[in-house]
Specification:
nine-stranded mixed beta sheet; 441 residues; three-stranded antiparallel beta sheet
Amino acid sequence: MSDLQKNWAKSVLARLPPEAPLIEDEQEESEEISDLPSIARAQEDDSSSASSASSASSAGTIKPAPGQIRPPGRTSAPSNTRLSPLEWSNFFDREFYFRRDFNGSPILHHAYLRVPRPTDSTAGLGPLFVTHHGAGSSGSSFAVLSSEICKILPDAGLLSLDARGHGESRWKSTELESRHQPYDLNLETLGDDLKFVLDQVVREMSWAKLPDILLIGHSLGGAVITDVAKRGLIGNSLLGYAVLDVVEGSALDALQSMETYLSTRPSGFPSIASGIEWQYVLSPNSPAFPQKTHKPNPSTRSRTIRDPTSARASVPSLLEEAPTTTNPDPKHKYIWRTDLAATKPFWENWFVGLSKKFLEAKGGKLLLLAGTDRLDKELMIGQMQGKYQLQVFPDAGHFIHEDQPARTAQVLADFYTRNSRVLTLPPKVSDMLKAGRKNIA
């Protein structure tokens, strides 16, 4: 990377807002709880937006229970426990379940929605950010980010789906127990799933047309949304796409050590709180593990997720209660929902050709990285040619949008503004002159 590029990146980073400090004591914890985002927003159209018509195709909507629709003005009260889980309703307005047949097998898709506000735009709604998480993660990975985006863009909405086999999305119908059967995680299949969920949400919300769409993908999700953009699945509604901390070269290199990583992480946890702590501080000496009694050494903490609110919002959806018949060990009461080792046959399919597709797809392009060393040759050349916008957060980890949600939201909001179809013109000279005469009078 040239000195000119390095100086440019430093100047950009210097203008970004600082990220909130990590919590270090109970007083700061209380402040964090009081500052949790409230999504009580005017939703005049929400009561009439959900369609009651059933699909004539193989797709079917699972009608949400009363707890799956967030009443306006209601805020879930989080516990004062430092590692307590945060409910999805702290960040989103609605959650959806959509059932459909896929090659003869039922799939239940799950998604969260923060509803965009009505506007004077062509679609009649504010922009909709559509997100896709990485392998082993879930749609709640974007929970805190959704709140931060809407602080900056109050009319915006965010749709965050669980990929098949992740979070609450399941291969089988709800009556069947197994989620860990072999499944299709090809890149095109995941892209088709995203389009299906988006179409179903539009139908359920009775939107006349798609609002302006910005795709956001982290890690594997970055490959998915890039493929969706390259295939033109969103059509003219797509303004642009943002890829978070994944490029083809470094992703393929990292796959070589993936199995080693999977063999070293815990297979289960005694509680949800201990799972949150593992993701947040990643310390085998943590008091959350009952076999240890001493405090962890802070120097050993490598923190997979560096923001405590993000960890409390996203980690619970990564775990599920283990069947006592197959796993009676109380230390492993909660296990991982997604069997990452079973996804190995798809790893190369996800990332081969990513850089080329990223540069060739239509729409605005943003690449947000945790370090410039992740750039491969093709992307370096494209960046020098001005083919995409590059932002670097060197003090963030791989979960860049969870580590620094406020800074990420600001970059994404600016990205939307630059690619928006709304043209803001300066005032006419005649109007300025008239206003000046009135002031003088």
